[in-house]
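Field: COMPLEX_INPUT
Field: COMPONENT_COUNT = two
Field: RESIDUE_TOTAL = 345
Field: MODE = joint
Values follow.
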Amino acid sequence: MAGAAAPKVVRLEVQRNWCKGCGICVALCPKEVLKLDEFGKVTVAEPAACIGCGRCEDHCPDFVISVEVEEK
Amino acid sequence: MLNQVVSSLRQERLPHIWCPGCGNGIVLSALVKAIHELGCDPDKTVVVSGIGCSSRAAGYLDFNTLHTTHGRALAFATGIKLARPELTVFVLMGDGDATAIGGNHFIHAARRNIDLTAVIFNNSIYGMTGGQYSPLTPVQKRTTTAPYGHLERAFDIAELARGAGATYVARATTYHAGLLKNLIVAGARNKGFSVIEAITACPTAYGRRNKLGNGLQMLLWQRDHAVTVKQAAKMSPEELRDKIVIGELYRAEAPEFTATYEELVARLAQKEK
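Field: COMPLEX_OUTPUT
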C-alpha cells in the first residue's frame, strides 16, 4: 500500500433490522463499501475498502451503521 | 462511536417512526454524541420535547425525558430548570412547535436567558399532521394548506432568538452533522438560553410536494446551499438569498435567570435571620 496513512483496523457493523433503505450511506460512502441488498436494506459489500471516515454513521438517520477505527 | 449512541437509546422502541430519509434521526444522533462529549451524567440530564415528528425524539432517549404538550416544551423545561438548577436540560422542538403555538414561550425563554439548550428541528413544515405550512415554510413553497405556493414570509429563527435575548445562537444542517454536534456542545456549555437550529429534511410532506427529491437529494441540497459564517461575510445579500448560513451566529453575555433567582432567594433568607 504505497502512500497509505498509519495502518488502522476498521470495524463496520450494521444493525440491519433498523434500516429503512434510504440509501444515504451508500451515496455518501467515498469508497463504495456499502450497497442495498435485494430487500433494499444496507449491506457491507466491500469491507476491505472501508477507510473509516464515518460519513455513513454520522448521516444514517436510523442508527444502523457503526464505524469503529482502531489505530494499529 | 455509534455503540455509544445506541447505549443512550431505548432500543426496544427502535426502529423509530420517522420516514425513510427523514433527517430527524441525524439530529438525534448528533445530540446524543454531543451529550456524550459533554460528559453529562445521564441521571442529571433532562430532555424535554413538545409535539410533532421531531418531538418524538425524547421517547427514544434513555435520559430523564418529558414529552409535553404542543408548543409548551420550553414552559415545562423552565419549571424543571428553576426547581432543579443543577440539571442539564435540553429542549427539542420542531419549527412549528417552537415558533407558532410555542412562539411566546420561545421569545420569553430567550428574554429570561434561562440556562436551557433548545435544539429546533427545522423541516419547514408540519410533517406529522399532514404537511401544513409552518412559520418556517419559505415563501412560494407548496404545502397542503398552500397549494398555490405559500404567501407569507418565513421567520428567521436565529434572528428571532437573538432579538429576543438568547445568548447563544447557531445553525447547522443534517448534512453538516459533525458541526451540528459541536454547536450543541457549545450551546450546552453556554450559561444561558442557547438556540441551535438544525435544518433537516422532510422528504414525505415537504420534499415530495415541492419536487425536491428523496431524503438523500434533500441532504445534498443542504450541502450545496450551506455557507459558513466566514464565507457569508464576504457575500452580498443577493448571493445569500437562497443560502443557509451555518456555524455559530451569535454569542452574548447576560445574567442567567436561575442564578439571579437563587441570589434573590439567598438575599431574602438573609433578611429573615
